[in-house]
Amino acid sequence: MREQMKQFSKNFGVMDQKDYQVLKSKRVLVVGLGGLGGNLCNLLVRLGLHQLMLVDFDRYDTTNLNRQLFSNHNTINEYKVDIIKEELLKINPNATIDKSISKIQDIPTSELKVYDYIIDTVDNPISKIYLSELGRKLNIPVLHGACAGWYGQVGWILPGNTLIEQTYINDEQGLEKDLMNPSFTPSAIASVMVSEFLKKIQNSDKTTTNQFLLVDLYNNQIIKTNSNE
Amino acid sequence: MVKVIFYNLLRSKYGINEILVKDGSISQIIDEIVSRHSNIIRNDFETSIVFYHGKPIHYHNFSTVIDDNEEIIITHFVGGG
Fold it and tell me: Is residue B81 assigned to a domain?
């Protein structure tokens, strides 16, 4: 037990034992295991999260190699959920990692009632809207994340809030259509998401809730969309 | 006056962080920005999204009026993962 705790000891500058126990008890549904999702799962498990459900239908391909953490020439054509589960268990063999090779829309909502949080790291507006609606149906918060080029956005969406639906009004892509995703932005945005996640666990009033934290790595600035707050 | 914050793509492209303009609809505000900065392309705003009191406003609602002493953020949304 002590040896197991030692693995997380360097986190205890920003969290305490109580936070760790809360973190251990939470079940998190992570949807989308691309550049954001892979990095985020890695950071969450290293922080001390023990119970994750991974959902993605895709396999690694060559274009993922620039940014997706567990992609390499040996994992191309492998399902992302399989590789990420394997890698997360290497980091913490005591974690419980469930997986589904499917689209989130194909999983019955009744099977998702056990989760405390949804994490949205999908790469398309339709799925983002679906996850926002799913959070409302399950009455659990959704941690939203998205990125493109030098830019990203992060925010907690509480059940009933429609910021996601108001932002993504159709199935059009955002800046990622032209700017794509370089090696560094997904990991930076995943880090911001995990810091938001920890603050949520800690019941901090510093979480970004029902608004977006807009991250601009080119101009080195982060602002909130409700700048009057 | 209305404080307009250019964010992400617009800031990178035009090197402008903030502009103070007369109050009016978002379309009028954009007209004033474009008239003062001839290098700014009006079409760039068609795909932009404006945050006003935390609410996203899309191009089809750019008739929304922004009151004096208010602040808006003009940015472009991202959806990649």
Answer: no
